[in-house]
Amino acid sequence: MSGAHALPEPPVPRTRAAPIYAVASGKGGVGKTWISTMLSTAFGRAGQRALLVDCDLGLANVDVQLGVRPQADVHSVVRGFLELESAVTPIMGGPGRNGGFDLIAGHSGSGALGAVKLEEVARIANGLNKLTPHYDRVILDLAAGIDPTVLRFARAAERLILVTTEEPTALTDAYAMVKLLRLQGSSVVPWVIVNMAENRVKGRKVFDQFAMACNEYLGFKPRFAGAISRDPRVPDSIRAQTPLPVRHPQSQAYEDIIRIVETLNAG
User: How many domains, in total, are found in the chain?
Assistant: First the structure.
């Protein structure tokens, strides 16, 4: 599962680059990183080659959640030791396997990269353009918050997935992120995922409230990607550092993830 590897050439030349999804939240603790890993797994199980990039340059933890120890990470890229494509680690066999995908890990347990210059962030973002022809989906797991680094990565993506919960602070911070991106000239209409919902119906109501605020004050309506039900199997799989569908093949939360991927693919 771990170990850097050379990026393989795709078996068939792609006619268009993979879309880049930025997964953001504004607020921490809403399950954004877990959702990023599950989307990557679900895209893989749907037969799509996925690349997940941990863009939390200060407190990365995708590799921790997955229980892998990459030989290379974003730190090596920022410091100029490696090109982005040389920092790839295959997860569960990598793309082409059942649920496998590629990971470019962040630098876990260190805040040293939290203050990188925006030019270095731009170098990483530009490096993604070389990778997109090798994949069907590229997913950026952004850091929590709305600092310039987070917003720069968000602007590098064609599609924004905003993760929130029913908590007022989560909704407020998600709204603040969308507002700032709009002020910076972004016209991307975000997809919204409501995580840890009591059920899908209540999750939809939370989205409707958020969409109403966006429409009234920002002049646009976000798109509903779906709701993920609160599921005790999720924290168990995180503690076990094992992807949810591997540890608990039958789980409501992963069924919800599959529906979200179907919605994203259709959209």
Answer: 1
Instruction: Convert the pLDDT of each residue in 67-76 to its tens digit.
Output: 999 988 887 7
- Tens of pLDDT, residue by residue over 225-265, are 999 999 999 999 999 999 999 999 999 999 999 999 999 99
Query: Which domain does 191 fall in, by range?
Result: 20-266
Tokens of 99: 């649920």
In a domain, 7, yes or no: no
Q: Is residue 1 part of a domain?
A: no
**Which tokens hold the place of 144?**
């929590």
8, burial (CB in 10 Å: exposed 0-12, middle 13-18, buried 19+): middle
Rounded distance between C-alpha atoms, residue 224 and residue 191, angstroms = 6
What sections of 9-61 are H helices per DSSP? 32-45
Strand-by-strand arrangement of the 50-54 sheet: 88-91, 101-104, 50-54, 137-141, 20-24, 159-164, 191-197, 223-229
pLDDT in tens, 2-12: 444 555 444 44
CATH number at residue 29: 3.40.50.300
DSSP secondary structure letters along 71-133: S--HHHHHTTSS-GGGGEEEETT-TTSTT-EEEE---BT--GGGG--HHHHHHHHHHHHHHGG
| Domain-located, residue 142 | yes
DSSP conformational letter for 50: E
